[in-house]
């Protein structure tokens, strides 16, 4: 026997935490009976439905996706805007993004149907590094960005220490390219960190999640991760 939310997560419905929310919202039934409390266990052969749709055990799949700008990190959108799942028309599994990238941010996004895997990578206690490259307005010196090492206050709360490197500076245009490595996932965090030191972000791209990068991918393309890559990501997340 296994807990209902664990089975839902393994089936690709959502992460375990989101599955628990669905249960509490009364959206899940087992063998025709609505479940609204946590702790229910199920066995093989039980009929589980979410919003009236049966769920099936799927083999876990994992993808690295190069999200273009102007695409929403979601499986669907009520305003009919383009979402990341629109690029996976040949995939039968019900995949979803691990975390999110802003609408106008491009770069690496991991897609999967493994809710437990997604939860490990996205959980705040697991400090997996995320590498961003930002084009900013201004020409800061390394000393100007030293505050990032200590953390800056955004939305009333201090960020964790971050690493940074100035990659290039165009004084004629008044812009610079800066690499920033963080391990948190707060809303608009990178943009707000630069804004906190008076350097607005003009363009933003996520280059890496842990050791995983965009090598070999063009914008809008994806590739399946190897078992070694999946294992390495889990080691990097849990090993902190």
Automatic annotation (TrEMBL):
EC number in record: 5.4.99.-
Gene Ontology cellular-component annotations: cytosol
Keywords from the named record: Isomerase, RNA-binding
Gene3D superfamilies: Alpha-L RNA-binding motif, Pseudouridine synthase I, catalytic domain, N-terminal subdomain, RNA-binding S4 domain
Ranges where the RNA-binding S4 domain occurs: 2-59
Any one GO MF annotation of this record: rRNA pseudouridine synthase activity
Entries under InterPro entries matching the protein: PsdUridine_s_RsuA/RluB/E/F_cat, PsdUridine_synth_cat_dom_sf, PsdUridine_synth_RsuA/RluA, PsdUridine_synth_RsuA/RluB/E/F, PsdUridine_synth_RsuA/RluB_CS, RsuA_PseudoU_synthase, S4_RNA-bd, S4_RNA-bd_sf
Enzyme class label: isomerase
Family the UniProt entry places it in: Belongs to the pseudouridine synthase RsuA family.
Protein's recorded name: Pseudouridine synthase
Organism the protein comes from: Vagococcus carniphilus
